[in-house]
Known about the structure:
By secondary structure, the chain is an all-alpha fold. It has helices spanning 2-13, 17-37, 42-59. The radius of gyration is 11 Å and the shape is elongated. The N and C termini lie far apart (27 Å).
Amino acid sequence: MKALVKEVKAFVAEKKIKEAQALLPKVYEILDKTAKVGIIKKNNASRKKSRIAKLIGKNSK
């Protein structure tokens, strides 16, 4: 989970928005799965998804 989130953040830092957007569904899937299993709380997963989407959206302009 952490590695995938870091990868998306690295793509955004390198201005590779298309690659970051391509990874977004996979990040969502992993975060939802970790929340379902109980590794992280549901709201924590939701917050992470929101922040990643906001980061990509802000830098895609």
